[in-house]
Write a structure and sequence with these properties.
With 482 residues, this protein is of the alpha/beta class. The protein has three domains: 178 residues, FAD/NAD(P)-binding domain, CATH 3.50.50; 137 residues, Alpha-Beta Complex (Polyamine Oxidase, Chain A, domain 2), CATH 3.90.660; 77 residues, Guanine Nucleotide Dissociation Inhibitor, domain 1, CATH 1.10.405. 33% of the residues lie in helices and 18% in strands. It is built from 15 helices and 20 strands. The protein has a seven-stranded mixed sheet with strand order 8-7-16-17-18-15-19, sandwiched between helices. Strand 7 and strand 8 form a beta hairpin. Helix 2 packs parallel to helix 15 and helix 7 crosses helix 9. The protein is globular and about 65 Å long. The protein starts with 5 loop residues before the first helix and ends in a 19-residue tail after the last helix. The relative contact order is 0.20.
């Protein structure tokens, strides 16, 4: 139907003047916060028993926290920091030394340090001072740096047709650098190797880190994500009238004869009616909700090209201190490209002189059918090879393994141009999630940004009277609309 008719129809079909948000990850929670700040009634529905999505965490039977993944904040983030400041919890981020450390089998390591100088001069020690790569290898990277640093947005967009490996070799950068430096970087970013990730994604992130002095600086929460980030956000929403329901899986979108969304049906058969709906779901769950009749529209048809990447996260509680590094660590060898000793990085996880290592296992596609113990053995063997001296004689006291068959979306070559904006062709339906258009892809920052953008689009439509507002809106905070 035409937009001009929507105002006439929406009031008649809405049995409940509220916004329904499906999905209780950071995208859905950020959208909910933006809306309650504007005085809009919200009900957030989460299929699981816990909130947080990819940033969820929970206690095991011993009372220890299990995390769904290794979550790191980067200095380049903006919107998640704004959100945390609004909640009064920004000081819960513990910033680490601005250095990228790569650990190698046999106990060797190399690092990229930065200087306190304007970009790109802050990179001089990272390139010139690194002794792991030869001068010839560093020169191959130096020759390619201008393309990374100073190319136009149009140039970056055109590189989406290449894998990062193709771009890397096409520009003459050393193969050894591809394996030792960029392989763990790509796996840490999107859990897929350089041969399977769009060159645009790696170039976007690399250029950002190189252009901004503190962009690649990393920080950790001072405790479990549930207690230190997710719960404060949920409490804020509830305190301002927002409703949050867990164990409430959305399985169908309800529509009227004009095609407008009237609400959602839950797995238990219950119907929750709404004047507007935001779907903040992982892409595979979203695709299951899209009605077949919508697939003729290019906006929805393109969504079928998106799929999630499998990933595993292992936590090992050791009986002694194995690492002494208070930061994230990368490794190009073995099956754990990025890891950290939470006993060092996170005060709430300190365990009396023992290491507590959290490691991302990637690529995990061919490992998902492995037995849990086989995965743990591989990770422990890898750690022992990285720290042969301190790991000698150490034992695993306890372990956990979290498998996520479909995590962040897979940014294959050619996919970036298909990413949808948050406003859909259905006048009262909006999307949020890392796969939607925003600067930081599928990350904590990307999730928050996408949720705020979806809410901002909805608020903009309400103010333009394209659809009937549920109540008189309060002025939205400036940070909510960008």
């Amino acid at each position: 139907m035409q937009m001009s008719n929507i105002t006439d129809k929406i009031g008649a079909i809405s049995t409940s003047q509220q916004v329904v948000i499906a999905g209780g990850g950071l995208a859905g929670l950020a959208a909910a916060k933006t809306l309650v700040d504007a005085g809009v009634p919200v009900i957030l529905l989460e299929s699981r028993s816990m909130l947080g999505g990819k940033v969820s965490s929970w206690r095991d039977d011993d009372g220890d926290w299990i995390e769904s993944g290794l979550h790191v904040f980067f200095g380049a983030y903006v919107e998640i920091f704004d959100l945390m400041r609004e909640l009064g919890i920004y000081d819960r981020i513990l910033w680490k030394e601005h250095v990228l450390t790569y650990t190698l089998e046999g106990g060797a390591r190399f690092a990229f340090h930065t200087w306190d100088l304007p970009s790109p001069l802050h990179l001089l020690p990272a390139i010139a001072g690194n002794r792991y790569f030869t001068i010839a290898e560093k020169l191959t990277l130096a020759r390619a740096l201008p393309k990374i640093l100073f190319s136009s947005e149009d140039y970056y967009r055109r590189q989406d047709n290449l894998t990062y490996e193709e771009w890397h070799l096409k520009n003459g950068i050393s193969r050894r650098m591809l394996h030792k430096m960029f392989l763990p970087m790509a796996l840490a970013l999107k859990f897929v190797p350089p041969a399977e990730i769009s060159a645009k994604i790696v170039l976007d992130v690399t250029a950002l880190f190189l252009r901004q002095d503190g962009a690649s600086r990393m920080g950790f929460l001072d405790g479990a994500p549930e207690e230190r980030l997710i719960a404060p956000l949920a409490d804020y929403i509830r305190a301002r009238g927002g409703l949050i329901r867990t164990n409430a899986k959305v399985c169908e979108l309800l529509q009227n004869t004009d095609g407008l969304i009237t609400g959602v049906r839950l797995a238990n058969g219950e119907e929750v009616h709404a004047s507007q709906v935001i779907l903040a779901l992982p892409i595979h769950q979203l695709n299951r909700l899209i009605p077949c009749a919508w697939r003729h529209d290019p906006y929805f048809e393109r969504l079928r090209y998106f799929e999630g990447v499998p990933v595993m996260t292992v936590q090992l509680w050791l009986d002694r201190q194995v690492t002494y590094i208070n930061n994230i660590l990368f490794s190009p060898d073995g099956i754990m490209p990025v890891y950290a000793d939470l006993g060092n990085t996170t005060p709430a996880y300190a365990c009396a002189g023992c290491s507590r290592i959290e490691a991302v296992v990637a690529p995990a596609r061919n490992l998902m059918d492995w037995d849990d113990r086989a995965i743990i053995d591989q990770v422990w063997s890898h750690i022992q090879r990285l720290f042969p001296r301190t790991a000698a004689g150490a034992h695993i006291r306890k372990w956990s393994l979290v498998r996520i068959p479909q995590s962040v979306y897979w940014p294959r070559p050619g996919l970036d141009a298909l990413r949808p904006v948050q406003r859909t062709p259905i006048a009262n339906l909006y999307l949020a999630g890392g796969y939607t258009v925003q600067r930081f892809y599928d990350s904590m920052e990307g999730a928050v940004s996408s949720g705020r953008r979806a809410a901002a689009a909805l608020l903009s439509d309400l103010r333009a009277r394209r659809i009937a507002p549920p109540i008189a809106l309060r002025p939205a905070p400036a940070s909510a609309i960008s």
